[in-house]
Amino acid sequence: MIDPRVWQYESKYGLHVTGRLGPGPGQDGNVYRTDRATAVKIFDREERFTREDAVYRILTNKGISIIAGHAVPEWINSDSSLWIIEMTIVDRPFLLDFASARTASEVPDWEPHVLDEYYEGLKEKFGANWENALHVAAMFNVATGLFLMDLHPGNVAFVDP
Predict the structure, then answer these.
(1) Which pLDDT tens digit goes with each residue over 5-20?
(2) How far, CA to CA in Å, does 69 sit from each of 93, 94, 132?
(3) Domain containing 67: what range?
(4) How far is it, in rounded angstroms, from Cα 56 to Cα 58?
(5) Which of 43, 61, 77, 96 could cross-link to 83 by cystine, CB 3.0-4.6 Å?
(6) Residue 87 — left, alpha, or beta (φ > 0 → left; ψ -120 to 50 → alpha)?
(7) Do the Cβ atoms of 125 and 78 come closer than 8 Å?
């Protein structure tokens, strides 16, 4: 079932949602394709919407559309009353989903064994690309001052998964 906020966004901004984009609900909400060849992301929580919208505004203000060779969706519009962001659709390799981005003061100070477990998890998720995923995240930090806390192949995609 499509969230009713989609219909409100369609009516308010004169577009039409044509179907789901991606495999299904994500951690933060749902993403749909529009007839404008854009995507609308409907967030399940205001805090996640606010955080991701702020990141897109940073990227837009800095004119960033590529980070470490990965395409970044460009912000088109957002509606804070509906918790919806409209963005361009990008192809692999891409970097997306910024609702988990954190400032340095918000990043946990992990003990060495926790950090080791984190790296092992990245190796499992990304295989041979795990260090490349860390590089993309590091370049995101250089570009924005923020840290990505949700690294997985759905958010940091390479040409050859």
Answers:
(1) 999 999 999 999 998 8
(2) 7, 8, 11
(3) 4-157
(4) 5
(5) 43
(6) beta
(7) no
One-letter amino acid of 115: L
Report the chain's terminal Cα–Cα distance, integer Å.
Answer: 30
Q: What is the pTM of this model?
A: 0.92
How many helices (H) and strands (E) would you count in the chain? 4, 9
pLDDT in tens, 54-110: 999 999 999 999 999 999 999 999 999 999 999 999 999 999 999 999 999 998 888
Radius of gyration for the chain, computed over Cα atoms and rounded to the nearest angstrom = 16
CATH number, domain containing residue 88: 3.30.200.20
Q: How many domains does the chain have?
A: 1
- What lies within 8 Å, CB to CB, of 147 at 6+ separation is 101, 102, 103, 104, 106, 107, 137, 140, 141
